[in-house]
Amino acid sequence: MSVDLGKSLGKEPASQPGKGLGPDLGKKDRIDRLAALTATGPDEAGVSLTRDAFRRLRRNPVAIFGAFLVLIFVFVAVFAPWLAPKDPKTLYLIAEVRPNNIPGSQAGFPLGVDNLGRDELSRLILGSQQSLLIGIVSTLMGLTAGMALGILAGGLGGRVDTVVMRFVDIMLSIPGLLMAITVALLLGFNPFSIMVAIAVTQIPIFARLLRGSMLAQRNSDYAVASRCLGVPASKIIFGHVLPNSVSPVIVQATLSLATAIIEAAALSFLGLGNADRSIPEWGSMLADAQDFLTVRPELAFYPCICIVIAALGFTLLGESLREALDPKFRR
What we know:
- With 331 residues, this protein is an all-alpha fold.
- The protein is built from 14 helices and no strands.
């Protein structure tokens, strides 16, 4: 074993001439190579945290399935105007719609029509645009505001931390859905009000998460050493502490996308979405189908399935990303 290790390290007498390495340099080189072998094994080079997380995600079937669902959802939402076979606002079969009979699947209408004779498949496809737009914009708004509060609390500490966190505690004391409904009612019936309402409920989550992560990083060895060397506090916070604290926040943002999609559908279901009901939204489509469950229950099943698939994809991907970045789950 000692012979093989010595060969693998390239061990040789330091005094042999013509080797191009002095005794000190040859010894240092062997120590570095020994450290690499003991840390990662003889056949595997060291990798960064990001590359290691990405490699673990590729080997995780749950992450692959979640990413597959997310890609389908994003693809349908981005190319919805070209994928929709018909105009979602046109009343195609309104003459055939009766109180006790809504036409189902037939030629030209794979999923049938709704209670106004509009193509159900086209409305589902176009509805994905609203869900994706509201989910991304509201999450970005909540992430930006929450990170600002988290940086103030975790970076400055002291009285600033106390004031900011008491404000965050007040926001957390109000049920999220109740706060979202209140904000949506105050801003009016439009997609922007839904975005702001959902963002407000996510601010305290991001603020507390980033603040806790930054407090843990502030007491680390590199931060203490930087303060001892006289490095400015702003440079320590934004150049060292913050970059090492954002990983949990990014993971939470992925999970919050799923929550935002569900909350957007809930607000639309309650009638707080777009005032123009002809614009397809999964939540409003589900609300319109409640009066026709005995006639055509599929009108409620279709938007529910779309909401579940979209939220499930982001949830699975976010949980897998959390495990990939958490050192406790490393094997």
